[in-house]
Amino acid sequence: MSASTKLGLALALVVLLALVPFLAPGYPTTIATEVLIFATLAMSIDILAGFAGRTPLCHGAIFGVSTYVVLYYVTVANGNPWIGVVLGVIAATLTAMIFALLAVRTSGVYFLLLTLALGMIVWGICLRWTSVTGGENGIRGSIRPGWLSQPAQLYWFTLGATTAMTLAMWRFVRSPFGLSLAGIRESETRMRALGYDVPLHLFIGFSVSGFFAGLAGALYAFFNSFVSPSTVALGQSVEGLLMAIVGGIGTLFGGLLGAAIIIALENLVSAYTERWLMALGLLFILTMIFAPTGLLGRINTLVARRGKRK
Amino acid sequence: MDRRNFIKATGTAAIAASAPAYMTLARAQAGPIKIGVLAPLTGVVASGGKEMVEAFNFYWDTNGKKVAGREVQLTVEDDASNPDTALQKARRLVEQGNVHMLIGDLLANTGLAVAEYVKGNGTPYFIPIIAADDLTQRKRIPNVVRIAGYAASQNPRPLADWLYRKKGIRKVVTVSQDYTFGHEQCGGFVQVFTELGGKVLAQYWHPLNTQDFSPYLAQIQDAKPDIVYAMETGADGNRFIQQWANFGLKGKIPLSGSMNLTDQSIIRTLGGEAEGILSAAHFCEGADAPATKKFVADYEKAFNHLPSLYGFSMYSGGMWLAEAIKAVNGKVEDRPAFLAAVRKVVLNDSPLGRPVRLDDYGEPIYDVYIREVKKRADGKYWNVPLEVYPNVSQFWHYNPEEYMKQPPYSRTFQGIKG
Hints:
Low-confidence stretches of chain B: 11-28
Number of strands of chain A: 2
Number of strands of chain B: 14
Low-confidence stretches of chain A: none
Distance between the termini of chain A: 12 Å
Shape of chain A: globular
Oligomer: heterodimer
Radius of gyration of chain A: 19 Å
Order of helices and strands of chain A: HHHHHHHEHHHHEHHHHH
Mean pLDDT of chain B: 88
Number of helices of chain A: 16
Strand content of chain A: under 5%
Order of helices and strands of chain B: HEHEEHEHEEHEHEHEHEHEHHHEEEH
């Protein structure tokens, strides 16, 4: 596929997404907003999991730190929502930096477990630091300014933000720096031999990934008007990672596909049974068997194969 | 176009434009009344959630799903004991299911999340189980009403009063799960207890899902209190009562607790360990009132177990809604009128056998029983009444406005005097 067709496809997708509030007003628009927010989270995870080859299980916590800070700053400290967003993203990036300092020298399953433990610490703090986080009850309060009060307005705002963030993340992973991350994924020793500072590269990659997760978390504060320890819990990290994996690790845009599929499935199947997690498990197993590179990865392979045949 | 024609034309246009609105309104009123039911059917409190749904359905099944000529349609959604899921399901019920009202949720955090959501769109939301004090106190929301429910700190107060005055208890230790529901119940208890002159020797807060209570039990034994007040829900309650007996404290130190500690949902799974525990609640399955007896017998016949607070509250909640729907002649679309009717309901035929009404803040005023767990003739354990405190409101003997000036109960503020 040439660059111009790709650009055309991306533009068509954005236009199509912008029409959602007209084509499917009401509840589907709300769901689409949620999909976009979680797509950003999944893509931020993909920067680490897909490009740097380090699978993190702490991004739910980084995402949630931002949500907590935004809601705390606006509803408890009566601050301005936009300053809240800035503070939330800074807090999330700092959290990611601390995590990165501790985790970048590990890889594989050790990286997975270490990030899992770090995420659990955040969860523990949110649960027990009752005077600030509200404990189990969390923090609630609508922080949307008037011009975002309608679901469609929030959707367009989220779409704009997500598009900008996706572009930024795409530029990042395609930049020479992003390529050096991919180099670390392929062979850490070779990169080191070439003179690259591997831990520093991973540290920056982790921080950038945390920055985008924080932006998604700030959007979630606008969307949800509520945060509790379940937002920073392990389940959130796992869900984000699953979205990235189902969509296709290392494809970036797979995050959008994965988020759409998992959230749609959750909503459709749970209307019929409480056991929707079983359907999700089944989907995950089928993906692993028939499309181990994720759905977008599979599509890419098919497109490439057809291109060759011609 | 001259002026007259212009007025005529715009008038016709206006009528034409508003006609579809009238038509949908007329059609909507002929359709069923849709009630969205949120309950945790999976997750940590799933057993309580199943009982909520069972009891709510039980009311509508036995009394007919038709009120004021309109059919009543229930849609049950699982909140998975998780506030984010609860929010998502509430959104779906309101935005996609177009329900006229929501009822349910069990855990305070799920209820608070949904309350925040309906605050924005005005959907009436009823919370027979959510006990968070501030939902009917400092942070009231006009469309959130605690029909057939209770505020956490409401019932422990008469218990503290009774223990101090009637039992000569002077020294207490509290042990509780470390979250708002526990902070509020213990707060209600120790505030009244210390204002009377009693002394709090120690307060222990442990995380939810504590497996081993022995460190706390050892400290309690050393503190030598006249009584222990325990606030435990769910599996923690089972474990606490069992370990209390295993540790040899049963019979040595009297044990009292929150109503959920000796709720049927817990003691029906235990044996004699629970016998003798004191608590206070508006519902007492062993009470003598004919209405209570009939409800308990019917419920036991239908489900083969005694009703818990969850069951009782959701059943009465159904009753409450039916009364209010009757009062507005089925016009639940008129939200202000419907909510006003809900607030005005005086429930005469509730399973409590005494009239129940709401105070000005949307919280029921109850006659509260002091209860003790005893063995029934057939070997099952249940709560029987020892005494009744009539007309207990969420504000006890305090002036509501004065009371709400004090901070909400928390781990650091328990209202202890002296």
